[in-house]
Design a protein that fits this description.
Order of helices and strands of chain B: HHHHHH
Largest sheet of chain B: none
Distance between the termini of chain B: 66 Å
Order of helices and strands of chain A: HHH
Oligomer: heterodimer
CATH superfamily of the largest domain in chain B: NADH-ubiquinone/plastoquinone oxidoreductase chain 6, subunit NuoJ
CATH topology of the largest domain in chain B: Four Helix Bundle (Hemerythrin (Met), subunit A)
Number of strands of chain B: 0
CATH architecture of chain A: Orthogonal Bundle
Largest sheet of chain A: none
Structural class of chain A: mainly alpha
Strand content of chain B: under 5%
CATH topology of chain A: Helix Hairpins
Number of helices of chain B: 6
CATH class of chain A: Mainly Alpha
Largest interface: A-B, 71 and 82 residues
CATH architecture of the largest domain in chain B: Up-down Bundle
Radius of gyration of chain A: 17 Å
Number of domains of chain A: 1
Radius of gyration of chain B: 21 Å
Shape of chain B: globular
Shape of chain A: elongated
């Protein structure tokens, strides 16, 4: 039997790595990948909770999260392509259109 | 046995997800992420969720990452990415990430002890499908609408504007 705390710790480590990668990286595609990694860490913790509560609802939520992530990846990559077509770059430093 | 496999898959996932931070090449990042997602699929299979494990391998490590690799190859930055100009946001991000990790760790260690390890019902396609089409029928239908909206949106965004 896998202890529940171990699942949580693995999920947290993956989430933190995803968060750090999101802020450290400067190109849009890798940032999207970091978001996918964070979603997966959340999925792992959902599955852990599903096992802790001995119910299947957590796995259903993971199913929905995967579906939404697929839609998000399709839209996000279309936006990245659009930005690249107009600006010829995918670096966030060069995308200061709003002068933020 | 299960614990050993869990630690093995978890180590693979964590080591290869670190490649997401350390590699500069986007293709290497994508390959590291594919290995991480596959290892997570193995972990899901260990945690009594065979259907989610298969979906993870097929949709995440298969479809979504193929999409990523495809876009990377289409964009094809020849000279590669120039080095980062500013260093302090990266350091700040690492510090904030570690602080967040410790904070969540404290919170979860206090909660996690409350649950005795119990065997959940296996997430087979039959069990999940029964639940999906009875209790979660409305979210399921709304998901299909979302997929159609995303499909249309991606096509409209990706279409080339014709010059008038």
């Amino acid at each position: 039997m896998i202890p529940i705390n171990l699942i949580f710790i693995f999920g947290l480590v993956l989430f933190s790595i995803g968060l750090i990668a999101f802020f450290v990286k400067r190109d849009l595609i890798t940032m999207f990948m970091a978001v996918e990694l964070m979603l997966n860490a959340a999925n792992l913790i959902f599955i852990g909770f599903a096992q802790a509560f001995a119910s299947l609802e957590g796995q259903i939520i993971v199913f929905f999260v995967i579906t939404v992530a697929a839609a998000e990846a399709a839209i996000g990559l279309a936006i990245v392509m659009l930005i690249f077509r107009q600006k010829k770059t995918v670096k966030t430093e060069d995308l200061n259109l709003m002068k933020g | 046995m299960g614990l050993i496999l869990f630690i093995l898959f978890g180590s693979i996932a964590i080591i290869f997800s670190l490649g997401l931070i350390f590699f500069k090449n986007q293709i290497y990042n994508a390959l590291c992420l594919i290995v991480t997602l596959s290892a997570l699929g193995g972990i899901f299979a260990l945690l009594n969720a065979p259907f989610i494990a298969v979906v993870q391998i097929i949709i995440y490590a298969g479809a979504i990452m193929v999409l990523f690799v495809f876009v990377i190859m289409t964009i094809n930055l020849k000279k590669g990415l120039p080095p980062e100009r500013k260093k302090w946001p990266a350091r700040l991000a690492i510090i904030i990430g570690i602080i967040l990790f410790l904070e969540l760790l404290l919170a979860i260690l206090r909660v996690g002890g409350l649950f005795p390890p119990s065997a959940s019902p296996a997430g087979t396609p039959a069990n999940l499908g029964e639940l999906l089409f009875s209790t979660f029928i409305y979210p399921f239908e709304i998901t299909s609408v979302l997929i159609v909206a995303a499909l249309v949106g991606a096509i409209v965004l990706g279409k080339k504007r014709n010059q008038e």
